[in-house]
Write a structure and sequence with these properties.
With 265 residues, the protein is α+β, with helices and mostly antiparallel strands. The chain has ten helices and eight strands. The structure holds zinc ion. Zinc ion binds next to strand 8 and helix 6.
Amino acid sequence: MIISSVSMVMAVQEKMNDVLHGFILKQIDYKDASVILTFLSEEYGKISLVANGARKASSKNAGRVIPYTKAQCLIDYQDGRTMYTLKNVSTIKTYKNMHMDLEKSTASAIIAEIADKFVMNGEESEYYKDVYACIDQCYACLENGGDVLTILTLFCSDIMKYFGIAADVDECVHCGSRLVSALSIKEGGFLCKSCALLLNVPCTDLSDLKRFRLLSKASIRNYDVIIKSCHVSYRDLKTFIEMITVHTGIKITSFGLFERLFAIE
Ligand SMILES: [Zn+2]
C-alpha cells in the first residue's frame, strides 16, 4: 500500500515536470517583458510557451529563448493543451556558425517559418516528427557549412511530400504522356509539348527538368548524394517556394528578405 502511494506520487511528479526537447521556431513579445515562444517539441509536437520576464536583462532565460536554436524546456504537460508557462529552459544547440552568417541565418528563418506554418498545434498534427527530423538535419547541415540553396530546396521538397503537394514529375499532369518538355508551377508538375503549347507554358531545358525531378524525389537525408550530383540554383529554390505558395496559399514572408539579399538570377 505504501509502495503504491510512493509510486503514485512519483508518477504525478514526473507528469508535473516534463522535459521537452525541440526547436524555437518563433518568438513574439508578450506583456510584462515576457515572450511567447513557438516550440516544435520532439515529444508533443508544436506548442506555445510563455517565458515570463524573458525580456528583462536580469532574467535567467534571457539568452536562452533565441529563435532557431535547439532547447530543452521544462513545463507541466497536460493532454489537450497547447499553451504552457515555461518553467526552465536551457540551450542544447546554439548553431553559432549558422547564426553568424546572414545567408545561413536567413535560411534558418525560412525553415522555421515553413515548419511553423505547416505543422498545426499539438500532438495530433501529422508529420510533426518528420518535420522535426528535417529541421534537425537542415540546421546541422547549415552549421557545418552546407550549401544553403541545396539545403533549403531539399527542405521544401520534403515538406511538399509530407503535406501532399509534391510536384508530379513522372508524366504530363494533364494527359499522362511520359514525353515531357515543360514545368508548370500552376499545374503542379511536368507537361508534354502539346499540353504546354495548349496552356501557353514555355518549354524548359531537359537538364532543368531532370534536376527538378531529382530534387522533387530527394530528401534532406540525401544531401550528400545531391551535393555531389547537381548544382542547385536560386531559380530552383524559387520554383519550390512558389509551388508551396500557389498550392497551399501559404506565403513564406522570410523568403522575401532572402530574395532581396541573395537573389542571383
Ligand atoms: Zn500532356
